[in-house]
Records
---
Amino acid sequence: MPPTHAVEATGLVKTYPGGRGRPDVRALDGLTLTVPAGTVHGLLGPNGAGKSTTTRVLTTLSRASAGEARVAGHDVVRHADQVRRSIGYVSQGTGADVLLTPRENLAMTARLRGASRSASLDRAAELLDRFGLADAADRRTGVLSGGMRRKLDVALGLVDAPQVLFLDEPTTGLDPEARASMWAEIRRLAGEDALTVVLTTHYLEEADRLADGLSIIDRGRVVAAGSPDELKAAFAGDTLTVDLVEPDADLVRSVAAGIAGLGDVVVHVEGPAGRLVARTPDGPAVVGPTIAALQAAGVRHGAVGVSRPTLDDVYLRHAGRSWTSAESAPAVETAAEVAR
Amino acid sequence: MSALTQTGTPTGRLTGGRASWAMQTAEVCRRWTVDLVRQPWGLGVSVIQPVIWIVLFGNVFQSIATVPGFGPGDYLTFLVPGILMMTVLYSGAWAGTGFIEDIRSGVMDRLLSSPVSRSSLVAGQLAQQLLMAAVQGVIVLGIGWLAGARYDGGVLGLVVALVASLLLAAAFCSLSAAVALLARDQTALIGISTIVVLPATFLSTALMPVALLPSWVESVARYNPLTWATEIGRTAMSTDVDWGLVATRGALLTVLAALVAAWSVAAMRTYQKSL
């Protein structure tokens, strides 16, 4: 009887030594996560939020400083070996030996997991076909395109029919065409029984398209969880966005407070540019009054837009900062990388 | 449940997901061997290096054989066992390079998150290094013969000398692997090469008979594994083999190799704990 939850993590904390007298880096800060079996689950957050660290703890690579986690029903510390037999892991880097061919990489992985020579070659051939790599099967992995290498990485994760497949930023660095192709692969995987996919991404669009469930991660914690639609549904109505030129944030806030029908007003300023984001039950109706009020107060503005809620709005609400500003300050994970 | 789904994805497990330690080690060894063969430059250099040494040292130090205290025989025949041991020492210093590359690329992450024995990752790589050392050793002996050295100990003597070189290689490859896994930096391996291997060469009897060494060098050389291996090689390849010397120096080398190999396995575990 397979466990109903592919991943159950409670209160995960991971600190890395800061080094040279600097304070410790807290990459995970009490992260709790549940992933139902058979779903595609997205860990969404900017660089440095703690997504990769979470994946490394769940795949037994790193050991959490505190907290507990079970993957495929096995404790990641006490029964690490059973966890390793139940998962596939596709890390951010390449997992393949560049001097070997894709076929050799796949066969070696199968051999290391106990397949006979003929069974390992059969499995390699199956996966090469499945991922459209048959033509490149006997070329050196190092000369393949980025998209092909990424597909090989995913294939390597599937060699031993895992229950849980971890994909750490599977499309980062791919061109749009290769990304679309990878999305198609992941969606196909999602259709398979008994396979759970845990996917980290910092692309909102990717999470929106692929994930059944999402955990939004910020500064080492899950700040919101649910399906993309549930998360967006919490925002009834529309989002109003106004680009601002050299704004005075306080002035903009007081102007916005006086406009009927605007709620959840956030003003953020980056250098000379700024942006007003607000919720409204009826977007088109508030555009005119908003422009009039801003102009009356002498606030210079650029484009004014109304949109249906996006995951960016969800992120802004829960993390208290916009996606772009969080991306430009990737604090935690980078420091952890240095510490390692 | 070994059937394929419609998309052709395997749903069946591979024999329960468990490979024997020997099978994993053999597979790891095979992988590194294929990698080595596909890097012809690295392979070429490791073959050419001993040729250069035999030609250079053999010519430059030729007159040492005429110095009183050198003893009977010609310098080249004296030199070949020393070059044999030096060759595996210098190659061994770089043995950890592959681990650093794997850590950098992400291959190590994938291996460590899979049910592969940590010790087989180390042992398989060491096995490949020893295979390479054996090939290099045979090449060195062949070149030495072509250059004019003569091996009076016969085939048995050559085999004993090669075994000694492999014990020395095991110790130094393991040292390099341990440093690579602990420091995770290519420059640390350059450190082994210059701080350990180069002085070890000159504080040994590889190039110079013990009688011609200054006394402080002689006392240091006595504790140098390169000296132990060279002594085994020289006596085994002579007409009058000192089996007592072979046994004691062989035992010392075996213990050393076992200790350093154990350290390199411990270093692999330390590496994972640091993640």
---
Amino acid sequence: MSALLTIRDLAVSYQTAPAVDGVDLSVHKGQIVAVVGESGSGKSTTAHAAIGLLPRGGRIDRGEIVFDGRDLTKLSDRAWRSVRGREIALVPQDPTVSLNPVHRIGDQVAEVLLIHGLANKRTAGVEAVKLLRKAGISDPEARARQYPHELSGGLRQRALIAAALAGRPKLVIADEPTSALDVTVQRQILDHLEELAADGGTAVLLITHDLGVASDRASRIVVLSQGTVVEEGTTGELLAAPTQKYTRDLLFAAPSLSDTPLRAPKPPSPDVLVSVRDLGKTFGAVRAVGGVDGVSFDIARGRTLALVGESGSGKSTTARMILRLETPTDGVVEFDGKDITSLRGEELRRLRRRFQLVYQNPYASLNPKFSIEDVVSEPLRAFGAGTKAERRARAAELVDQVALPSSVLKRKPAELSGGQRQRVAIARALALRPELIVADEPVSALDVSVQAQILRLFADLQDELGLTYLFISHDLAVVRQIADTVGVLRGGELVELGPAQDVLERPGADYTRELLAAIPGRKPLETR
Amino acid sequence: MPDVLVRTRRKPGLILAIAVLAFALLAAVAPGLFTGQDPLAGVPAEKMRGPSPWHLFGTDETGRDIFARVVHGAALSSQATVIAVVVALAAGSALGLLAGFRGGALDSAIMRCVDVLLAIPSILLSLALVTALGFGTTNVAIAVGVANLAQFARLMRAEVLRVRSGVFVEAARAAGVRWTGVLGRHVLPNALGPVLALATLTFGTAVLEVSALSFLGYGATPPTPEWGSLVADGRGFLATAWWMTTFPGLTVAAVVLSANRLSRAIEGDVR
């Protein structure tokens, strides 16, 4: 059987910089092929070239993209219009920005039908509702009349899938379709894509950075790095016996539940540093998303507590209340035996040198006008620690501690990579030698190989400096690497709390089991 | 920097604008470079002469060289403009910064006052102010400055609100930086760019308004030359000596247009 889509020796460049340089891959009818790679590997560029939607400045330098016997690189804009949506459809990455905010969901799906003449004005509405139902949206009649902002991320992604399938395409290109979604929602969306391939014979080209997702869903995997194919093969072969070092590194770096933790969890300790009792936070009159209700736990000195939950579960709010960036509505926060719940002004500021924060997004948490030296020494400045020369020396020492070269000191954040910036943020948090570091999703914005390095850094620093961590994450595989104790939050309530091994291997709550089951990358674990 | 120069070279209009402004500023600092004639002492024998190689812009009714008066007037006019822009920039930014950073009732109070200022046409407002403050170039400058501060307050507040919600600002607070430090080291430097671009745009408006007030006679006392009062002086002789109003008027127009052109270029660079 000949392939539906064949890409041969494709090269794409932006201005003069090559993004893709010699990629070959093929997708057959009813097959799911995953393209895996880290950011900048050219995986999205390959996908966009295949649907003729390269961003401005992007140019195909050589190679061919053969779809159903036609070379797509030679199509005119006009000819593209009959292919796009009708024969090849795209499910974009970010469901929040990919829907038009001023049109109803139903109309946006119906639009595709009207454009391709698959329905007339009278029938389009009904057909759109049918498509929404097929995409797994419950109560589609009501949803069709709603606007994108009224729907959750998962429902929006389903609406986009409905719009993509409206033209009954032969090939669906899904560009990181679930990377913005919670794991349980991610599983449902991927299940749906898989059914499509199995039942409808639709081919799916799945672009993802997550090897776990790829290994669960795809029959073939293509590994990209720096614009070229590093390795290609059936999923089973590739995972069982990767021939290339890059693939092995990627497999090794991908956190999964099969891995052993970075180090053995420490035994419980009676020396409590942070104690939280019946903590509650309401936003406005009603308990809204992100609120917290009656949460209690202790963090022992020198240990790591991880709070796990999906978006809106209140895990960040809890962390922010402990740091007193939010004021709790109920309950008590004690730090080292002192009630800090209603501390204010200078007294609170003085205390801040003992607990510091590392943010999720290293691109936003550093002042763009500061040099790295300024960023790292800012907390020292704030507390008037040492002379200018001493602060400079300490900044150099800190940068060295997080394994960055001293040459970064004079540079601006914009000149650093995401992983380097997160190291800078950690160095800043360490500057005042705090006892507690709160890390809010510190690795979720980073590539897997960088994630592993940063997690290793966290573990080493804890051993070296006796730090206490409160680790916020949605990713149980990451949590397993580093946590001594795990707390699971859902809808602002703590549903489970216990030693990491117990919670992750013998979960007591149904919700924890659900979360664990939804983690991608479990299938090969079971079959291995 | 060389990159900026290369881009500038391709825009003849911008080069002309920079040349005009450089000319005006140089005239303000060292008028002797451009004319050797006395702007105050007239030669009665040469009164009401048209433009000629000896008197580029002609002479007035007492035989004073108009080119010399325009060149010497540049000092007072540009000084007044600079004071006006500095007053508007400093006071407006301070109000906007305070309103945006503190928020709450103070924000509402400041911004409603700013709304009132915006509701009154700025030339009318500066007229009222200069009447209250008394005549003189400095008072004219202050009046024009106050009349223009509302836009600065609004823009600064908007920028502060944008920057203040940034994660790095909260990170600074979480690191224990005092609120003064957060404001001065984190919020202000990141909010200042667009405000400075507005300041260059305001230069054009300020030249025009300062000249307008001086035209109406609120500026320097005669015979001290000022661009606005030079236009006013020639008004009575428009039918017989067109050059007396035309050349000072064209000078004002050229400077205002050049300032606008330059500010547009700067605005484009800031974005």
